[in-house]
Amino acid sequence: MSPRITGLHCIDLRFPTSLTMDGSDAMNPDPDYSAAYVVVRTTDPDVVGHGFAFTIGRGNDVQVAAIRALEQYLLDLDVADLLADMGRTWRSLVYDSQLRWLGPEKGVMHMAIGAVINALWDLKARQAGLPVWQLLARMSPEELVALVDFRYLTDALTPGEALDLLRAAEPGRAERTATLLAGGYPAYTTTPGWLGYSDTKLARLAAEAVAEGFTQIKLKVGDNLADDLRRLGIARSAVGPDVRIAVDANQRWDVDGAIDWIAAMAPHDPYWVEEPTSPDDILGLSRIREAVRPIRMATGEHVHNRVMFKQLLQAGAVDVVQIDATRVAGVNENVAILLLAAKFGVPVCPHGGGVGLCEVVQHLSMFDFVAVSATMQDRVIEYVDHLHEHFVTPTRISRGRYLAPTTPGLSAEMRPATLADYTFRPVEHADDNGYRTSV
Amino acid sequence: MSPRITGLHCIDLRFPTSLTMDGSDAMNPDPDYSAAYVVVRTTDPDVVGHGFAFTIGRGNDVQVAAIRALEQYLLDLDVADLLADMGRTWRSLVYDSQLRWLGPEKGVMHMAIGAVINALWDLKARQAGLPVWQLLARMSPEELVALVDFRYLTDALTPGEALDLLRAAEPGRAERTATLLAGGYPAYTTTPGWLGYSDTKLARLAAEAVAEGFTQIKLKVGDNLADDLRRLGIARSAVGPDVRIAVDANQRWDVDGAIDWIAAMAPHDPYWVEEPTSPDDILGLSRIREAVRPIRMATGEHVHNRVMFKQLLQAGAVDVVQIDATRVAGVNENVAILLLAAKFGVPVCPHGGGVGLCEVVQHLSMFDFVAVSATMQDRVIEYVDHLHEHFVTPTRISRGRYLAPTTPGLSAEMRPATLADYTFRPVEHADDNGYRTSV
Question: Could you tell me if residue B371 is left (phi over 0), alpha (psi between -120 and 50 degrees) or otherwise beta?
């Protein structure tokens, strides 16, 4: 007897990161890193899956409510049946016509679907006894193509083209798996560069990053140009000429303002400029990129679905695609984005940090290396040394590289003590309509 | 003493429209028109504002939760102070850095802000003793520009350009107001064209629409080409050669499929093709438009913010801008979109239908006529004869035209009996984490 889904256990977890200015940037001065955490439970207490959507505090309760709204779609379903065709399972949530109105395919509802889909992948990988990256990397090209929804993509990538890409990368899967298990995957670190840190702390952390083996760091910019130029100089002095320094403006500028600001930073040789403007502004990013060539443009952590990534690639607006583990609708949609990036020959350098984003996203880059792009050239996964201690199987970093996870699952499970200690408990009362309200 | 905000009263309203196939289209086969309804309450029981976000059923509870999450931003604030600078009030919600992570500026959270902003406009207009269209149309160009957030817009429209546009339309405001009050604003009707209706019902309703004075109707298409061609023929026979027939695919096609399908419909002379593909696909829509010239492209009811509208206009992807009353962040953001459309010389023909979308959106087109574009040429507001009876001041249609509302406010208030009869009450229990769950 295959187990059946009995419910989604949802938890509103918030960490008071604003107290230390960890994570501070030009648009997010005081984030409280949070997770709308979900456990997919089944009739078998040993068969569970863990997932979450990452938020930065207020509104995490809304994200939890959105995940909870998905419970009705899964209750009593047969787990083996759900997991046997994850493409169908994905469509059953994303294409529910009534829920779809709330996006479509964007914002709170889409992230909720991502959390649940990721929890199902966690469950599927546990059952297979494999980490998700390896579960994906052992699937056939046909099985991988079946995970992807090609609606709205076919003008850029057809199922046939995706199949060709995956078949071309089939030879060498075993060797690349061995390479990963032996040597890991390159990381870069944003730990030194938060906007709220002092110059002294920046210099110390930048030097430490190099000593630890990182070959790229990232600084937050965009609040004050004089500060940015001074901090870039401090960082360059600390890391020397050979370490790459990326900068991240977190959507701070308009198009023309971005062009001017980036031109002013150009003498400091930023390796890439991340989120110079709105993540929705495909045409704007394209114009910025043209104006500041050859400085690379990077975006993606707030890009809400595969249709937007498709256009960023079609428009030639990005040099670096930054997927995020919990912004889009989970593993399936990220597989689509990896395939799009491979088609256009653009490297994928995932967004990490937050709560558990590094833990989950490492699986996608490692799968990409084994079975899609088949290269690590100019590819790095963001690493931030925050909150890993809350995970049962935290990321392992050594000499500036992510070590490949070997535990079955998606590495998304948090420790029981964390769930107990960081559950957000607002003071509550019910209003006269029966809804709860926070006071 | 100016009153203070005491809370947001939120109601989950759902109407069982799926039973009659009202509202059925190629992507939304069985919508249950719903509203996440909000009443902004104050210390003065006579000082209230009404707003809502429109959804089509499941997930309306999530939309309600998102509106409720905004209460903490307004509690105890001085009403006069909030309303005196609605641009500042808008930014205080849209730019809350933690909430912003849930979009940014899209989906459930953005629509929630729209509902609350619209409720505040309702309140402001009631205090002024004017319908919202007239309240806006009496504001100075400087005051109107101050409502708009120009972040991410300045490469297409600067505050100075917006000011010039509004100043150019200042002469004649009084005459155009009189024109509106005397003769109303042109409407078109989608009532005949729902996909679930029989050919007989289509023919009858199309003929009735012409008899009632409408000069444009709209048909839903995109499910089956043979059906679409037959139904277009039936509609053309019913309305004669001079009535415009628009078609609406509700996002059903990929880019290449859209081009083929539209080419096949071309002999029936569709006046515009609405939502041929994903509302996010600016480049795709632009390619479709190029391929099927001179057939007009229309989109907007699912376009999530002003940055997307900006790009649709910059890319020359749209001939008709379809604003929606509750998709973006309320009146302020729609003023920005009206200004963008005026800058690019593209007519705005709003999305109506659903629950109360006609009631609210008419104010925006009428304001546009008086103070922005200053013309009704090729401009029509969608009209659907559904659910108006639930409103205290429903739209009034005569000879195919919206009569200008004269009651103070935004026409968003629903009748007390409706609030009592259509409140959605799921069976509920609390799980072991204290959250409610629907079973």
Answer: alpha
